[in-house]
Specification:
With about 650 residues, the protein is of the alpha/beta class. The protein has 21 helices and 27 strands.
């Protein structure tokens, strides 16, 4: 695109005496036009108490490379979300970008939307101050002499308009008024009905961006904010599904990673590129303590405005303290699977003396808002998340292919076998097809059934000596009166185990994807735990399947944790009835030794919960004299009552008769 001499203020009215200076100035003018960062570092001055400071020399700007990256992103990427602690200069950075665009691109129209009138007026004021401190050869005069508070228009036709959403303004009308090639949404997490505003903005913005790009003009949308909860919050959903800049940038070599474009092609990712600026990168601990004092030590505000924690809703099953401890890890290794999908691992080796469980959640993906197919790999000894997979498939058979590839890869690359590796497939209507894909894979060089978890076929009694077993974990797909349906008790047990592991060791959750889903888990009024509206819990359920099977293996002695064989705490239900002479529906007596002081009797601790789950009114006997109780026990009696299984002898130092 060609420009007239009027676009170059420094070239006008020159003489032979100042031609060299003019040429140098013109060169600088062009450098500024081509680089927002060059413009900001060399010619922008920011007002401070008692004067102003050159932006490029300010201690805050030079405290982290993220300010430089942010300016580059504003100029080069047309969808940016910027999450920042309070008082980190995010509004100033935006104002610099806007002034740069207005100076160098005539007739450019810009919209700035924020949460209240005060912030709108403040933004216009900042833009004017930045222009005022520019060198005269960069300044563009304001159009008209009258002071305009809600917009700033230059004589070259460029204009920025600041507006806000209040309770009396229709958010849809606000959005439809933002039909410009550059749209800034400030403190977007706090804008009322932001999703309505965005829905109205997006169509006209897309059209404006096409024309702007055609003419070589800057274009795009920028979201800036501090967090304001997770779940259904509009910004949270945008930010969570955006590509994180830290995932594609090599800070050591200051280059983008090879193949970074693939991040934008991942299933579920939007067009936004997200950057985060935490206070610790620019401020001191003393500043942080002072800010906490200003916030009256309100921990929730501190978490959000300073520590950038996306807190759960009031109905979240995890506390803010636990959510704060979620620190996402970057995958160490990624292996490619069919259909442009990937499995992410957080470890570089899987020792053969370990035990590993792969949970497989199945879904019929038919649209952009449908559920994902998901897998989670855990360390069976600890519950630590080792890897994950999340993808949508339009064809269910494709997921079966990917599961086989995953098993094959883990077996071949890490030497896993049927003695230390188990695959738990959800056996619902969709999952049955996946299981059949694994069972009847005769053309493969591996027998997948050796890795599949089995449980009782539906409709069989617990005391069946040789029950029929089926592959997979029953969740749904049958009548509610048979075992194939995921009864409330079974689902509740899974979330009990989930709560136990996450609350005790939140660091076990390594992927940002699983952390996001856990953050969005809520308890509905009917008591059911699931993802909040508009979110997903596919990885959570895959993780739940792992924890559920892990618990069964611990009870059965297949997995021994730190020398603690929990199977010693368990007796078969049929024997329990004999030993304690209790009714199946109304147990009267349980015996517990006092060498397990941390044990609390509740429904969650009743391991054989199919029989005793949610039962109460249980009389508990605690014997303080263990030696005497051993003697009585080994004589096959309790309180004078003989055991029916006289040939069975147990040491109460090793057994607790609670199921």
């Amino acid at each position: 695109m060609s420009y007239s001499v009027n676009h170059y203020p420094a070239i006008q009215n020159t003489t032979h005496h100042n031609i060299n200076q003019t040429l140098n100035t013109s060169l600088e003018w062009m450098k500024c036009k081509l680089s927002l960062r060059y413009f900001a570092e060399n010619y922008v001055y920011i007002p401070v108490a008692g004067g102003n400071v050159k932006y490029g020399d300010s201690p805050q700007y030079n405290s982290t490379v993220r300010y430089k990256i942010l300016l580059d992103l504003f100029q080069q990427h047309d969808s940016v979300s910027f999450l920042s602690s309070r008082q980190q200069g995010k509004t100033t950075s935006i104002a610099i970008y806007i002034v740069w665009a207005m100076v160098f691109f005539p007739k450019l129209q810009i919209s700035f939307l924020t949460i209240d009138k005060g912030r709108a007026l403040d933004f216009i004021s900042r833009c004017k101050e930045i222009m005022e401190f520019l060198p005269r050869w960069l300044q563009i005069p304001q159009k008209g002499n009258a002071e305009k508070l809600t917009y700033y228009e230059l004589v070259n036709g460029s204009k920025v308009t600041a507006s806000y959403v209040s309770g009396s303004i229709d958010p849809d009308k606000v959005g439809r008024g933002l039909s410009n090639p550059i749209v800034i949404m400030d403190e977007v997490a706090f804008i009322p009905h932001a999703e309505v505003v965005w829905a109205a903005v997006q169509p006209s913005l897309s059209a404006a961006k096409i024309h702007a790009k055609r003419n070589g003009y800057p274009t795009g949308v920028i979201f800036t904010t501090t967090p304001n909860g997770g779940g259904e919050n509009f910004f949270y959903k945008v930010f969570s599904n955006a590509v994180q800049f830290d995932d594609i940038y090599d800070y050591e070599n200051e280059v983008l990673y090879d193949g970074y474009q693939e991040e934008f092609e991942k299933d579920g990712k939007n067009a936004f590129l997200s950057l985060t600026l935490h206070w610790s990168e620019t401020r001191s601990q003393e500043w942080y303590e002072a800010q906490k004092k200003e916030l009256n030590y309100d921990q929730r505000k501190i978490n959000q405005e300073l520590d950038l924690v996306f807190l759960g809703s009031e109905n979240s099953i995890f506390s803010d303290e636990i959510i704060m401890k979620f620190v996402p890890k970057k995958a160490i290794y990624t292996f490619d699977l069919s259909f442009r999908s990937k499995f992410y691992l957080f470890v570089d080796e899987l020792p053969k003396d370990g035990y590993y469980i792969l949970g497989v959640d199945t879904a019929s993906s038919t649209g952009i808002n449908s559920d994902f197919s998901a897998m989670v790999l855990i360390d069976g000894f600890t519950g630590l998340e080792l890897g994950y997979f999340k993808h949508r498939f339009n064809v269910l058979k494709h997921y079966g292919v990917v599961i086989k590839e995953t098993i094959h890869y883990l077996v071949e690359m890490y030497g896993l076998d049927s003695d230390n590796f188990k695959v738990v497939v959800e056996r619902n209507n969709v999952g049955k097809a996946i299981i059949e894909e694994l069972v009847y894979a005769h053309e493969e060089d591996i027998d997948y059934t050796q890795f599949l978890f089995e449980e009782r076929a539906p409709g069989q009694k617990e005391d069946t000596i040789e029950p029929d077993m089926v592959y997979g974990i029953w969740t749904s797909g049958g009548r509610k009166n048979v075992a194939s349906h995921m009864q409330t008790g079974k689902r509740d047990k899974m979330f009990t185990y989930l709560n136990r592991v996450v609350n005790a060791n939140p660091e076990y959750i390594q992927s940002s994807e699983l952390q996001k889903e856990l953050r969005n888990l809520v308890q509905k009024p009917n008591g059911r735990i699931e993802a909040t509206r508009g979110q997903h819990d596919d990885l959570v359920m895959a993780y739940n399947f792992c924890l559920y099977v892990r618990e069964q293996f611990i009870k059965d002695g297949i997995i021994i944790i730190d020398g603690e064989d929990r199977s010693r705490f368990r007796v078969e239900p049929s024997k329990l009835l004999d030993y304690l002479e209790v009714s199946l529906m109304k147990p009267k007596h349980l015996v517990m030794t006092d060498n397990n002081n941390d044990f609390s009797l509740n429904a969650d601790n009743l391991y054989d919960s199919d029989m005793l789950y949610n039962m109460n009114q249980i009389e508990v006997h605690v014997k303080e004299d263990i030696d005497e109780y051993k003697r009585i026990y080994n004589e096959n009696s309790i309180d004078g009552r003989k055991y029916n299984s006289a040939n069975e002898r147990f040491d109460l130092a090793d057994y607790i008769i609670i199921s």
